[in-house]
Q: What sequence folds into this?
C-alpha cells in the first residue's frame, strides 16, 4: 500500500546572510532603493553585495553636501600647502632685508662717533699729561735724592755746603760796575761787565769780575793769603786738572782754610780736602746761567 505522498519542503525566501563588503566602492555605488527589494526575489551575490552596501551607508545620500564640501577642501588643501612655502619665503625675504636708517638716525650716529673720538682724544691727552707728570716728578725726586747724597758726601769731612748768594737787583745777570756783596765769599748777584779768566792769582781781582766768571760756569777756589805752600800746591793741582774752569784766588776775609764757590752754591772747609774740592769742581762746573763767550 502506498502511503500518502510526502509533502515537499517549502523553500524559504529569507535572504542569506550577507558577507561584509570588501571595498567601500560598492557601498558608494549602491542605490538607496536596494534596501527595499521584495523579499520574494531571488538573492544573488550582486544583490547581496548591494544590500550590504546599502545597509552600511544608510545616510550616504544625506551626507553628500558635506562630503562635497570636504572634498573641495581636500582639493584646496594641497594647493594651499604648495603656496605656503612661497608665501613663507616671500615673508622671510621681506623681514630679513635690512632697514635703511633715516636721516635723523644718520646724523645722530655721526654725532655719537664725534663724541667718542673727542672722548678718546681727551683720555689720550690726559694719559700723556699724567705720564709726563709722573716722569717729571720721578726725575725731580731722583735729582733731589742724588743731590742729597752728594751733599752728604761733600760734608763727610770738615766742609759745609750751602746755597747762600746775593740776589740780583733786576731781572738777573745784571752788569753793574763796582758791585758789592753781602755774602762772603760771594756766589752770585749783580757783577762787573768784564769777567776774570781761569788762572792762579797772587792778588785777587775785583769781586764783580769773579762773580761774572761764576756766571760763565767757572769755579773759584778761595784760600787765605797766608796759606802754607803745601795747601797752595794742592789747590794748583786741582786747577791744573780743569785749567779752563778753575780760578785760585786769595781772600783775606776767609775764616776757614779754603772755600769753593760756583753760581749759587758754596762749600766752606776748615782744612784742605783735595778729593772733596775736586768732587765739587767736577759736579758743578759749567752750570752758570750764561755760556762763556768764545
A:
Amino acid at each position: 500500500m502506498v502511503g500518502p505522498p510526502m509533502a515537499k519542503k517549502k523553500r524559504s525566501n529569507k535572504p542569506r546572510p550577507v558577507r561584509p563588503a570588501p571595498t567601500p566602492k560598492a557601498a558608494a555605488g549602491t542605490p538607496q532603493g536596494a534596501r527595499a527589494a521584495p523579499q520574494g526575489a531571488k538573492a544573488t551575490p550582486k544583490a547581496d553585495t548591494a544590500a550590504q552596501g546599502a545597509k552600511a551607508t544608510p545616510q550616504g545620500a544625506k551626507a553628500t553636501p558635506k562630503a562635497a564640501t570636504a572634498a573641495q577642501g581636500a582639493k584646496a588643501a594641497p594647493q594651499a600647502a604648495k603656496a605656503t612655502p612661497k608665501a613663507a619665503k616671500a615673508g622671510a625675504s621681506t623681514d630679513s632685508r635690512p632697514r635703511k636708517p633715516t636721516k635723523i638716525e644718520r646724523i645722530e650716529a655721526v654725532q655719537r662717533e664725534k663724541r667718542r673720538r673727542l672722548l678718546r682724544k681727551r683720555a689720550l691727552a690726559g694719559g700723556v699729561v699724567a705720564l709726563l707728570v709722573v716722569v717729571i716728578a720721578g726725575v725731580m725726586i731722583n735729582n733731589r735724592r742724588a743731590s742729597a747724597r752728594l751733599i752728604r758726601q761733600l760734608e763727610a769731612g770738615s766742609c759745609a755746603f750751602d746755597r747762600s748768594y746775593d740776589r740780583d737787583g733786576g731781572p738777573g745777570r745784571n752788569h753793574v760796575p763796582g758791585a758789592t756783596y753781602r755774602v762772603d765769599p760771594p756766589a752770585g748777584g749783580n757783577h762787573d761787565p768784564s769777567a776774570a779768566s781761569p788762572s792762579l792769582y797772587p792778588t785777587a781781582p775785583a769781586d764783580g769780575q769773579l762773580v761774572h766768571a761764576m756766571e760763565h760756569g767757572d769755579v773759584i777756589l778761595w784760600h787765605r793769603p797766608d796759606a802754607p805752600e803745601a795747601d797752595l800746591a794742592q789747590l794748583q793741582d786741582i786747577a791744573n786738572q780743569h785749567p779752563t774752569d778753575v780760578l785760585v784766588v786769595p781772600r783775606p776775609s776767609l775764616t776757614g782754610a779754603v772755600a769753593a764757590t760756583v753760581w749759587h752754591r758754596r762749600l766752606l772747609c776748615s782744612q784742605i780736602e783735595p778729593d772733596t774740592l775736586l768732587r765739587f769742581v767736577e759736579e758743578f762746573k759749567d752750570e752758570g746761567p750764561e755760556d762763556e763767550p768764545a
